[in-house]
Fold this sequence. Notes:
Blueprint: E1 4-8, H1 13-25, E2 29-34, E3 54-58, H2 64-74, E4 78-81, H3 88-93, H4 95-118, H5 122-127, E5 129-135, H6 159-178, E6 182-187, E7 189-191, H7 200-210, E8 214-217, E9 223-228, H8 229-242, E10 248-251, E11 256-258, H9 259-273, E12 286-289, H10 304-310, H11 318-331, H12 333-343
Parallel strand pairs: 1-2, 1-4, 2-3, 4-5, 5-6, 6-10, 7-9, 8-12
Antiparallel strand pairs: 9-11
Helix pairs in contact: 1-8, 2-4, 4-6, 7-9, 7-11, 9-11
Amino acid sequence: MNKRFMVTGGAGFIGSAVVRHLIETSAHEVCVVDKLTYAGNLDNLASVAGNPRYQFKQADICDAGAMRQICESFRPDTIMHLAAESHVDRSIDGPGAFIETNVMGTYVLLQSARDYWQNLGLTEQARFRFHHVSTDEVFGSLGPDGLFQETSPYLPNSPYSASKAASDHLARAWHHTYGMPAVVSNCSNNYGPYHFPEKLIPLAILNALEGKPIPVYGDGGNVRDWLYVEDHARALVQVALRGEPGESYNVGGGCEATNLEVVRRICRLMDEMAPDKVRGSHERLIVYVTDRPGHDQRYAISAGKIKRELGWEPRETFATGLRKTVRWYLDNPHWWHRIRSGVYRGERLGTVA
C-alpha cells in the first residue's frame, strides 16, 4: 500500500538520500520539510524535484504552527524525523543551536504529530508511524572491544550527542506515555554522495583535489564504523514501514576504520583517479592537528537486530562505497563548488577558543 512520508531535514545529506530512494524505487508520496540552513541544499533533490509525488515545504521544526499546518494539509502516514544540527565540532563552538533544534524542535514536532495522530480514525492511527532518526554517538565511547547494542546505556560526551540523546528519550516517552506509534533508529557514521564537506571524508577528498592540507585529529587513531548513505536510506525506509512501535534499531555498516586509515585510503584512491603528476602522492598532504575536545575513541555498532527482524543488511563494503564516493565528488564539482566558494571553505571548527 502506498504511503505518504513527511521527511523533516529532507534536503540534508541523509534525508535527501531517503527522499531520492523513496521517489525512485517506490510509489510513495513524499513531502520534504526543511529549514534550509547551511547544510540543507535543494540541489540534493534536483533529480526528483519534478516528480508529481514530491513536494517541498520550507519550514522550521521549531515552528509549531507550521508543523501542524503541514500535517493537516499533507496528511502523512509516516513522519520520518531527520532534521537536526549534526556536526560535533559546530556543537562545541555553539551548543545553543543544537539544544534549540535537536531538543526543542523534536519536542515541537512530537507534539504536532501527536495532535495530528489523535484526530485520525482508528485505521489511520494504526497505520501511522513517527520514526526518529538518531546516531550511535548517544552511547558514548567504546573501548577496544565490543559493539553498541540497542540496549547499550546512553553516555553522550559532546553537546551534539547529548542533544540527540535527549531527543531519543523524548520520542520514546511520547510512545510510552501517549501511545503514539514511534520507532527510533541509531546509525553509525554515514558517508557518500552529497555529504556536506565539513565532515572527514568529503573534506579529505576535496582538500586532496585542491592540494590543501588534509587535517587528522590527534594521532588519527579514533575508530568509526562507516555506513554508505544509500544503504542507510534503505534501512530507514524498512524501519519506518516495518519497525515495531516502541522499538529501536541500530544501523551500521560493519566497516570499522581509524580516521588515519580512512584518509590514507582516500589518498590512494585520489592517486589512482586524479593523480598529481608533479607533486606525487596525496598522502604528503596529511597533517596532524590538535585533537577535538572530548573526542570519543571508538564507535562500533551491532546491526544484528535489524538484519534478523527486518531483513536489512548493507550492500556496500567500505572499499566499494568509498570508491563510489570519491568518484562522485570528482564527477560533480558543480555541486560542491558553491559550498566551497561561499557557505563553507573548509575552515577548522570545534577548537574551543
